[in-house]
Amino acid sequence: MKRYILLFLLLNFTDLKGQNPNPYGLQIINDLNAYKEYVKADSSKELLELKKHIPGLKLDIRYASKNNFTGQAVYKQARAFARRPVTESLRNVQLELNKSGLGLKIFDAYRPYTVTRKFFEIASDKNFVANPKDGSRHNRGCAIDLTLIDLKTGKELAMPTPYDSFAPEAASDFKDLPLDVIKNRDLLRTVMEKNNFRVLNNEWWHFDFIGWRNFELMDIPFEDL
Questions:
Q1: Is residue 42 part of a domain?
Q2: What is the mean predicted confidence (pLDDT) over 128-137?
Q3: Does residue 118 fall inside a structural domain?
Q4: Which of 36, 48, 109, 153 has the fewest CB atoms in 10 Å of its CB?
């Protein structure tokens, strides 16, 4: 039954209130009521607030501040959301890391499509931002930007580069690095891949949920969720 409901929603997508034509022909949910209908038909579509579902999770939502590559705040609220199965997998990552005295710090998660368009306009190196003609896996609520922290000190573990670096060292397989840095980066990658995530080649901090293709592009701001 869920499949038929979702198919009906998809076929009637452009008729939903609040849906504006996308210049790239993408189907994007930008109406809160339409989103709620998707969630009603399939609970896995729900965007959950990570802080409320993952114990001890730390946030450093850079795009809600000026401390990011754009130099401006593009989010009105410092919050992080992800689809239900993504959140559940991330919770498993956190619980596994906690056994070793470590935890996760989130830089970014679900990102409204409007922000992706803005990033593409601003970025000097387009290889480090999603092209709006395709949309981002962040727009689907299926990508997470994160790092590891020491639970006792709250400090980040040493990684190849700062978050959002456009340097070659940011690549997930860059070799010419201190051994402790490689160890930390590989630990993050190992535990994330064990829980259904895959790292982005040119960003050690970016992980995509394996089932991202099952989720629609979204353009609903945090304050409406």
A1: no
A2: 83
A3: yes
A4: 153
Residue 81: both structure tokens together? 């959301």
Identify the three-state secondary structure at position 108: strand
* CATH (domain of 183): 3.30.1380.10
- Residue 144 phi, psi (nearest 5): -130, 135
**pLDDT (0 to 100) of residue 3:** 52
- Look at residue 59 and tell me whether its pLDDT is greater than 70: yes
217: left (phi over 0), alpha (psi -120 to 50) or beta: beta
Asked if residue 181 lies in contact with residue 133, where contact means CB atoms within 8 angstroms, the answer is no
Question: Which residue has tokens 């997998």?
Answer: 89
pTM of the model: 0.88
**Residues spanned by the domain of 176:** 47-224
The rounded distance, in Å, linking the Cα atoms of 164 and 121 is 16
- Has residue 76 got a pLDDT over 80? yes
Residue 3 lies in a domain: no
Given a contact cutoff of 8 angstroms between Cβ atoms, the answer to whether 110 and 218 are in contact is yes
Query: Could you tell me how far CA 186 lies from the centroid of its own chain?
Result: 20
Q: Is residue 37 domain-resident?
A: no
pLDDT band at 119 (very low <50, low <70, confident <90, very high): confident
Number of domains in the chain: 1
Q: Is 171 helix (H, G, I), strand (E, B) or coil?
A: coil
Q: Do the beta carbons of residue 81 and residue 50 sit within 8 Å?
A: yes
| 149 strand-pairing partners | 103, 156
Tell me which of 90-94, 113-117, 144-148, 207-211 is least confident.
113-117
